[in-house]
Amino acid sequence: MWLRAFKAIISLAIIAPALVRADDLVIYNDGALASGWENWSWSSTLDFAATDLFVGTSSISIASTEWAALSLKLGSTTFQSYAGLRFDIAGAQPDIQISIQSTADNSQSPTIPLSAFGKTIVADNFTSLLIDFNALPGTGSKLESRCCGDGTWDRITFQAGGSGATYHLDNVVLVSSIVVAPQFLSAEPLANDVIAVTTVGPVNISSVSVTLNQQVLKIANQTTYIPVDTPSKSITYLQLASSLAPGSLLITAANASFAYTLPAVQYASIVQDVKYPINPHIYGVNFPSGSGYIKHLGIPMSRWGGNAVTAYNPFGGFTNAGNDWYFENRGSDSADDWIGWVQAAGSASMLTIPALDWVSKDASSYSYPRTIYPDQARFDPYNSDAGNGLFPNGSYITPPPDPTRAYTAWNTSAVKQWLSGLANKPTIVTIDNEMEIAHSTHQDMHPEPVSYDEELSRVINFATAAKAALPNVLVAAPSTCSWWFYWTSAIGYTDNAAHYNTDFIPWFLSQMKNQEATTGKRLLDYLDIHYYFQADTSSNNATAKALRLRATRSLWDYSYVDESWVGVSPQNHQWNPTAVGLIPRFKTLIDINYPGTKLSISEWSSTNDKDLTGGLVAVDVLGIFGKYKVDSATYWAEPDELGPIGLAYWLYRGYGAYFGSSSAQVNLANPKPDVLGVYAGTELGKLTLVIVNKDPAETMAFDLANVPSGKYFIRHFGGAAGVAKWQTNITIKSSTYIVVPPYTAIFLKQL
Ligand SMILES: *[C@@H]1O[C@H](CO)[C@@H](O)[C@H](O)[C@H]1NC(C)=O
Ligand SMILES: *[C@@H]1O[C@H](CO)[C@@H](O)[C@H](O)[C@H]1NC(C)=O
Ligand SMILES: *[C@@H]1O[C@H](CO)[C@@H](O)[C@H](O)[C@H]1NC(C)=O
Ligand SMILES: *[C@@H]1O[C@H](CO)[C@@H](O)[C@H](O)[C@H]1NC(C)=O
Ligand SMILES: *[C@@H]1O[C@H](CO)[C@@H](O)[C@H](O)[C@H]1NC(C)=O
Ligand SMILES: *[C@@H]1O[C@H](CO)[C@@H](O)[C@H](O)[C@H]1NC(C)=O
Ligand SMILES: *[C@@H]1O[C@H](CO)[C@@H](O)[C@H](O)[C@H]1NC(C)=O
Ligand SMILES: *[C@@H]1O[C@H](CO)[C@@H](O)[C@H](O)[C@H]1NC(C)=O
Ligand SMILES: *[C@@H]1O[C@H](CO)[C@@H](O)[C@H](O)[C@H]1NC(C)=O
Q: Which residue numbers delimit the Glycoside hydrolase family 44 catalytic domain (predicted)?
């Protein structure tokens, strides 16, 4: 019916009015945008009366280039009183994401990728999709401004990804009401005697019944909780009259049923007396989005870092992201203001100080104009004169550009002037960012590969300047990007050879120690590295997810041969070189080469911020950082507060309820690090526990010796209950059978 060939026989007058209610607001039906709506699109070829595929008499056909968009704005009024947005879409799974915006205060909804709707979109037929403003697809959050008050929504944007998008839209309507059918989404066993039931709509909870090995389990009590960020869903915790036990568990509710096999226990004991402090700075992130974010997730360390701060000019408020974005200058937030609000919200700060020879001179210049270098591989879709500095064959443009085209000179005097003038003092400074790959990230102003000697001398000179300007500041360096560059420079093995065949980081540490011996002053307080898991999990299929979840072993386990190039061709002179063993390895290198230096990991990532497994990885990693005594760590980059990574931080630190300040000993009779992480904390004699079940299908049960019975606060996410901030108080009557469902992380805090 929707193809041109069938145009003669369609009679869609019957369909359209049935879908649109009188108090709905039509944006597009046929022929043109409805009155009051304006076309605010960019870089897109649009036809508002397309007749190649349509419902009614026409549709909108859209062909957007990379990052371009169809964007529609309501002229003089706003639409926040509507319940949702419905539209019909056709296209071969086009790469687009949708956002709702307020042009008045610049606030924006979370972006909603088409994949979040969970439907296959086809090219030759329309699929009807609905965005419920009370439960946005993907995050499940409400449409509300997270930055600036209430949000005066007036604009809807369908933006293409990096390869552009071609598709059709039709029947775009703001709907006045959405009826949510009552539904039982999940029902899972939890802890000692709880069934956690998640629902939407007005369900009948009394219809839930629970049997274990065909025997009915009585429900003693129930309590319902609505999570702060996802109010369309709720969870009801049914406390059973008896404990869960091994066997076959069946939960039925109205028309739904959920079955689990409860396993035999795994034995573990917790020893609170064997403990050592956890540095809270391990729970940090790069660039938190605002003070609410810091407070909600309990972020105690925030970093100003990444490729774009190498060229930060604090005097003008400019920066340049280098090869991340066409070597273009742009305006920057003020680092001083940033330190101010971050610290006012309760977080320490880690500030990167530029340590190359140049910083941005203005907010608009760029290094590779087409007018000078016409033959380049790519140009900025938003500025067709700014190229990416590569010939079409991928090699660097020659001759290198004049650095003064985009930059102004920078040196240690400028750093002293800047840091001494700061109104807000950083806790830690790092000496630039991934300086060892400047010849690539900042090829326009530092085309030569950085050698061992150059990197050392820049760290010494800029750390000296920083400590002269801010006597109490702590210095972290060299913020090396990856396993390869921990051991050699961009020059290659001849540089190792020129330094007694010593690998880079051990050499760097010993030189910083020599420097202290010579001057009597410690310049390096933290050895700072970046760590990204090397195994390829990008396919995100079941195999990749399992690999992502067990790769956390590379942080601590020398018996884990890395499942990447590192495990095959490790390229260094280190002991046990095919195992990363990251934290113990670097602690040992510090002990050998410069004792007393702390260890910081100022960039790390789960490898997938959107997938539940990324959140479970982050839970495991935060537990490992505490257990293995990392001194500071910041996630790259600002994880979505409502997404799986944000939930991992919330689990340990959300809303003022923290994991214990000391790490307590956990003894597992039969450790299974591929699929299980167990972390204990203690504070003032009270226990906290985090257990992450990384198995996609197996429920786990634990007999936990020395876990006192009594009242606990419990938080959890994952599994069938999904990504939401679920929590309640429970009473643990017996710790001999504690259940954790598949793909779930739980946090228990003794009250
Ligand atoms: C809508 O805006 C885009 C981008 O500016 C423009 O190319 C297009 O011609 C406009 N379409 C209509 C029908 O006004
Ligand atoms: C288009 O979708 C409708 C509704 O799902 C279906 O009835 C129809 O057969 C489909 N048409 C084509 C050409 O696939
Ligand atoms: C149960 O009922 C709800 C609400 O009517 C419905 O959405 C859901 O699909 C039904 N589930 C099953 C398994 O029939
Ligand atoms: C809820 O379910 C219970 C148990 O099945 C039933 O007795 C009761 O009538 C139901 N209540 C409603 C309002 O449907
Ligand atoms: C049931 O749970 C509520 C909320 O936690 C609590 O206030 C109440 O005392 C409990 N009732 C019984 C009988 O345990
Ligand atoms: C790439 O193209 C440039 C410009 O045409 C040329 O000078 C250079 O030799 C080429 N490099 C390679 C590796 O072919
Ligand atoms: C930094 O540059 C300024 C301006 O050229 C110059 O006056 C100053 O001496 C330089 N400082 C150092 C340490 O070279
Ligand atoms: C997972 O993806 C990888 C990489 O694309 C592929 O080699 C592998 O066969 C896939 N495995 C499964 C189980 O689909
Ligand atoms: C759990 O108990 C604590 C302490 O009694 C209380 O402050 C908190 O509000 C309770 N939390 C929930 C989710 O019931």
A: 318-535
